[in-house]
Amino acid sequence: MRIVVLTGGIGGARFLLGVRAYAREVGAEVTAVVNVGDDLRLHGLRVCPDLDSVMYTLGGGADPERGWGRVGESWTVKEELAAYGAEPSWFGLGDKDIATHLVRTTMLDAGYPLHQVTEALATRWQPGVRLLPATDDRLETHAIVSARSELASPAAANSAGSADLDGAQRAIHFQEWWVRYRAQLPTHRFVFVGAEAAKPAPGVTEAIAGADVVLVAPSNPVVSIAPILAVPGLREAVTDGPAPVVGVSPIIGGAPVRGMADRCLAVLGVECSAAGVGGLYGSRATGGLLDGWLVAEEDADTLVPDVTVRAMPLRMTDEAATTAMVRAAVELT
Length: 333
Ligand code: FO1
Fold this sequence. Notes:
There is one protein chain. The chain is an alpha/beta fold. The protein has 2 domains: 2-66 and 99-137 and 198-331, CofD-like domains (Rossmann fold); 140-193, no CATH class. Helix content is 38%, strand content 18%. The protein has helices spanning 10-26, 49-59, 76-83, 95-109, 114-125, 154-160, 174-180, 204-209, 221-229, 234-239, 261-268, 274-281, 319-331, and strands at 2-7, 29-34, 40-42, 45-47, 130-133, 140-146, 169-173, 187-193, 213-216, 245-248, 251-252, 255-256, 292-295, 308-311. The strands form 4 sheets. It has a 7-stranded parallel β-sheet with strand order 5-2-1-9-10-13-14. It has a 3-stranded antiparallel β-sheet with strand order 7-6-8. It has a two-stranded antiparallel sheet with strand order 3-4. It is globular, with a radius of gyration of 19 Å. It starts with a strand and ends with a helix. The structure holds ligand FO1.
């Protein structure tokens, strides 16, 4: 059996621990197609947060609390950069994490494409699944916010309210929106810069075409899954492909399990619920994405037109719980 997973970072990485465990049980191969929209270049280094969260988590090197960066991290370089007043100081790079970015940036600058760099880095971490970036090309998520939102603090941003959504607009990188402003700025929309010219990374459409099932991880639908599907040809490979597509709801009881998917959904005007996200993805029978949709027991009454909905415990409390989710998703097909 061949399983393809469309995934973002922190929640998706935890989900992939269960996919890997299930795959070992049944003897399946797993390919993770990972979002690159969060990627950014800072202090001269290319940082790939979602690829690194997945690689570190599956490789046993991730900090389990943060979900990003390395366990047992030190922050000497970050402190030295701050001593120089080197911005941005709101995005912290740990000393061990910087080694990953140095190797990645060196290889990219030498002309290696991101999928080959990812493969090289994964050789050290042995994640046990194949990691592919959605694209080797530049695709960056930016948030379009009101130009007046030069707000120094999230608190100030919070008081700005939606009144600010009329004036001039400006784009900020997703990470600034997410980390510096904690998604508190009045936001018009998200754009995936470079998407129209991006191509699926080598191996991505082939893996999807050869899959027995495609799983959509319980990642942020707006800024993790959407940027993957924004790569021309990638969405079509999934919707027109032979494999059933089953998603796992990242929303339980009307709230995201982790992160700020509620704020992202609000930008799109989509209800923060299992039904809202299921409806956003849509049914493959009517031009959308899903054949099946796994929801939490709290949301057992969820209806998504032309999509098979199944309710079960969705909290990834440990690998066994996550593996049970994966088994249910695969059996839904
Ligand atoms: N998230 C934060 O909230 N603060 C940080 O300083 C931060 C640094 C960071 C460095 C490397 C990395 O791979 C991820 C990092 N993140 C940080 C998390 C990052 O914003 C998220 O992993 C995703 O991009 C959003 O899901």
